[in-house]
Design goal:
72% of the residues lie in helices and 0% in strands. By secondary structure, it is an all-alpha fold. It folds into 2 domains: 73 residues; 72 residues, no CATH class. The protein starts with a helix and ends in an 8-residue tail after the last helix.
Length: 146
């Protein structure tokens, strides 16, 4: 009679083990799904971080290029920021930069090219402004990516 009881006990243990295996398989599948989901979120977060880093690097490069230009012109970044009279006019900004770089006296006594203008045929030509600084003011030979 002990044999049927032990067989019954074995069958019960076998059933419990099968249930445990089924539960573990389910947990394993849930963990796999969670792992895949977390990996996708992680990849998205990394892509966002890379995008922000690239954007920040690009802005820093532009700032460096602009800073280099203002250094070559001999003006500070603070002066450059106030140029343009608070508006969006490119002409106003270039005029303000010219005043900051050359000064009002030099601009009144010198000309862009150093040649006499067509309006005053018989007049004497004014001395030319520094061509290197003029190129920097007008943005020639400077590549700024916007």
């Amino acid at each position: 009679m002990s044999r049927p009881q032990s067989q019954s006990t074995l069958e019960e243990e076998n059933t419990k083990l099968k249930e445990t295996v089924t539960k573990l398989k389910k947990e394993n599948e849930d963990l796999r799904s969670l792992n895949i989901s977390l990996q996708k979120e992680f990849i998205q977060d990394i892509e966002k971080l890379l995008s922000k880093t690239k954007e920040k690097n690009k802005q820093e490069e532009q700032t460096t290029e602009q800073s280099t230009a203002t250094t070559n012109l001999g003006i500070s970044n603070a002066i450059q920021e106030v140029c343009g009279r608070g508006g969006s006019s490119c002409t106003a900004m270039v005029k303000d930069l010219a005043v900051a770089v050359f000064g009002r006296e030099v601009l009144s006594t010198h000309g862009h090219s150093g040649k006499a203008g067509n309006a005053n045929h018989g007049s004497i030509a004014k001395p030319a402004l520094d061509p290197g600084k003029i190129k920097l003011l007008l943005g020639e030979n400077i590549e700024i990516n916007i």
